[in-house]
């Protein structure tokens, strides 16, 4: 994708979680990119988000919305987190940032990317290709 690489997260506690990584790891902040490249990165984030939303809606009737985050507090390179959110999340989590999940839920062995996510990943990839072809 322009200015970036889309990857599915190694944790899937929220199925469909993806990360958009800048294609130059020396880029620390969104504002480090020239305006045109900044807009391309944000457009790639939008495309990935739309693809994840479409795939998640098709595979889980509890899909509710997408959350987009560009933080950079821990990893000093530009990247965006895209989190699908679901109706089946515990009430204590709905309306709160995903980072407030217990780390055992977030990174526990049952949350790891596995073969059971292959269909969702395939749908995301197919949808990205469809959206990119429509440009």
Number of helices: 3
Low-pLDDT segments: none
**On the 0-100 scale, what is the average pLDDT?**
95
Give the strand tally. Answer: 4
Estimated share of beta-strand residues: 15-25%
What's the overall geometry? globular
Give the N-to-C terminal Cα separation.
Answer: 12 Å
The computed structural class is alpha+beta
Question: What's the alpha carbon Rg, rounded to whole Å?
Answer: 15 Å
Largest sheet: 4 strands, antiparallel
Which range best describes the helical content: under 10%, 10-25%, 25-40%, 40-55%, 55-70% or over 70%?
25-40%
**In sequence order, what are the helices and strands, one letter per element?**
EEHEEHH
Which strand order spans the largest sheet, edge to edge or round the barrel?
1-2-4-3
Structure, explained:
The radius of gyration is 15 Å and the shape is globular. It has 135 residues and is α+β, with helices and mostly antiparallel strands. 23% of the residues are buried. Helix content is 34%, strand content 19%.
Using brief descriptors, characterize the structure shown.
alpha+beta, 135 residues, 19% strand, 4 strands, 4-stranded antiparallel β-sheet, globular, single chain
In short:
The protein has 135 residues and is α+β, with helices and mostly antiparallel strands. It is built from three helices and four strands; from the N terminus they run E-E-H-E-E-H-H.
Write the layout of secondary structure elements.
Elements: E1 4-8, E2 18-22, H1 35-59, E3 63-69, E4 79-86, H2 103-107, H3 118-133
Antiparallel strand pairs: 1-2, 2-4, 3-4
């Amino acid at each position: 994708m322009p200015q970036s690489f889309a990857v599915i997260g190694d944790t899937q506690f929220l199925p469909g979680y993806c990360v958009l990584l800048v294609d130059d790891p020396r880029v620390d902040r969104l504002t480090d990119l020239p305006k045109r490249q900044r807009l391309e990165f944000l457009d790639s984030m939008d495309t990935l988000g739309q693809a994840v939303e479409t795939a998640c809606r098709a595979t889980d009737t509890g899909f509710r919305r997408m959350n987009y985050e560009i933080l950079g507090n821990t990893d000093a390179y530009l990247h965006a987190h895209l989190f699908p959110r679901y109706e089946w999340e515990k009430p204590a989590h709905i309306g709160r940032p995903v980072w407030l999940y217990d780390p055992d839920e977030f990174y526990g062995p049952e949350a790891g990317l596995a073969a059971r996510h292959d269909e969702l990943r395939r749908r995301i990839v197919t949808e990205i290709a469809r959206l990119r072809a429509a440009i």
